[in-house]
Amino acid sequence: MGCSLRVPWDDGLTQYNFGPQHPLAPVRVELTMALAEELGVFDSPDVQRTSFEPATQRELELVHDAGYIDAVRLSGETLKPNDPYFLGTPDNPVFSRMHDASALVAGASIAAARSVWTGEAEHAANIAGGLHHAMPKHAWGFCVYNDPAIAVAWLLEQGAKRVAYLDIDVHHGDGVQAMFYDDPRVLTISLHESPLTLFPGTGMPNELGARGAEGYSVNVALPAGTDDSSWLRAFHAVVPPLLQEFQPEILVTQQGCDTHALDPLANLTLSVDGQRTAYEAIHRLAKETAAGRWVLLGGGGYELVRVVPRAWTHLLAQAADQPIDPHTETPRRWRELVAERTGEVAPTQMTDGRTAAHTPFEAGYDPDDPVDRAIQATRTAVFPCHGIDPNL
Q1: Which InterPro entries does the entry link to (predicted)?
Q2: What tens digit of pLDDT does each residue of 329-347 get?
Q3: What residues make up the domain containing 260?
Q4: Number of domains the chain is built from
């Protein structure tokens, strides 16, 4: 028997669309859902796509200022920029019915959180979500409403006392961190490319949390060029010890796949195989530390054909406890859909042909290795706050 998985879905989720020249193209979500369907991820009776409602004004106000929500609604009706709220910038162009599309994404993440919190399902996924940069009073980094933060705030409102938020997007999860920076009920962990070389310019190890919540904001700032083995080494050196100590009631993860070597907006060099290995590890940690309660969201990912659909199909399959053999061929009908929708040639296999393995950090720290220095900086800053020896 596989894990039960709910996937809140509505075709309207592809209406979160900043226009044809913008890198956050909704076709990536369409192609992911199509590939997962062709490979049978949704065939099990334990996996269901479910309907849901958009986030309400009150739910959006769990993390966003009412004036900002009004500005989003008005800008989407008039198609006019609103500079104080960063609406109409190159990153966040105004588009028609912007509020409706953004509230729908947030509603799907709330529905995913509800499914897991109420015990309806062990896992739930909103791959159109993961818009982790939006701030309480303005848009930021392609993100209008911060659906991960809204889902976490909703869980706290239901009575959750310990929520872990893990962000593996190549960009720092700055919006979510900011919204819970003073709240020790929420442990935020972000592994990302160093802010010295990538937007948004935050996410250094010394960003620990506000007074009374020191150690509950965790940042691993990885150097450009970090590959599968080094990324996995960093992940295992930091994430499992903290989750095992924190023992969250529920694990919420942002699964941006822009860590891939082909991603046009960033500088890490992971493969789909390394990403798939990370998904296995996260699934295992959800079982070990959160009684299996796992809410998984999408995020960044701008190689629309060769990376995002394969990575997130592996993610959905892992959450369904039906992992896909990486040497599986991509279905012909899906490749035809890719050609029709994008004019590009689709990959023929679910692998990049890599073997993703790592040497544990505990086997020895190399001070000349920039990844090891990044790992040690985070462990030294954060582990003592949780009673964990950073040198063991």
Answers
A1: AcuC, HDACs, His_deacetylse_dom, His_deacetylse_dom_sf, Ureohydrolase_dom_sf
A2: 999 999 999 999 999 999 9
A3: 5-53+100-386
A4: 1
